[in-house]
Amino acid sequence: MSAILDRLLGRKKKSARQAKERLKLVLIHDRTDLNPGTLELLKDELISVISRHVDIDPAAVRIEMTQDGRQQRLIADIPLNPAGRRRVR
Amino acid sequence: MAAKVVTVTSGKGGVGKTTATANLASALAAENLKVVCIDADIGLRNLDVVLGLENRIVYDLVDVVEGRCRLRQAMIRDKRLPELYLIPAAQTRDKSAVSPSDMVRLCDELRPDCDWVLIDSPAGIERGFRNAIAPADIVIVITNPEVSAVRDADRIIGLIEAEEKGPARLIINRLKPAMVKREEMLSPDDVLELLAVELIGIVPEDENVTLSINRGLPIVLDGKSRAGLAFRNIAARLRGEQVPFLDLNDQGGLLGRLARLIRPGGA
Questions:
Q1: How many domains does chain B have?
Q2: Closest-CA distance of chain A to residue B144, Å
């Protein structure tokens, strides 16, 4: 009954969308052997290496996998802190 | 004649490999093309029963490979479709009885005197799968619009590319248009976006498939069946014809877009 209510209120995703979203994530990891834990580890190491040379905000770093056809890409988005702020410190 | 070798595979079991092989072979043979189909699922043979030829088996694939008979002796000719032949799998042996190079040799022997060789691959990613794709010129991956089947299809497509047998062509089998419309089943667009391969056909769910297998009569010979028409269209696309995708009830927009996804000039 509550499921019907959810549906009426538009609260529940259609199952095909859920299937697609779940598959997207599963396929990324199947194709690359990279699990979320390894990805986190990679992110931490990248942050520590880059921080040695430039000033970055570790909380703003984003690492994600994207799909381009059957090719998987690792995208790292690392915003740099403005050089001025560093001098003030 | 110089045959093209087509392997039908899937990763997951039960998605329709054998049905597709039997029907594509029958559809090609019905066009007066000489077709040899090979059941590569050693130990779990089924192409014989789907084609209705189970009572005529004398020799099998392993007998040919081990030299107990000549290739011609293991080829069962279908009386209803005189251009269709079956080389059955052995039932009492396992996949290790045949190697990928055995399959390449056997297909090379068949190539000069037929138009098409169709190989029904076993499920899985082991030896039997490797045997089945070794001689292939074209690999067809068949899947259902379901999470587990799509995941396994993706895995098998990766292996096909790694073996340099790609690009794989995809059949989406057992699609239920009404469920897709309710957004309770992955649509062909969803599956193609996830797998990023070339589509060669969409086969709607059709009770007549069960009936046809019960009788051992390929569904492509049933002029009224939707699934039969879908398989005939796939056979035509294999032959290089441009055939529009079936309009699966009120989904012209969706399927029209799919048709444009197909690259022209495929084999």
A1: 1
A2: 13
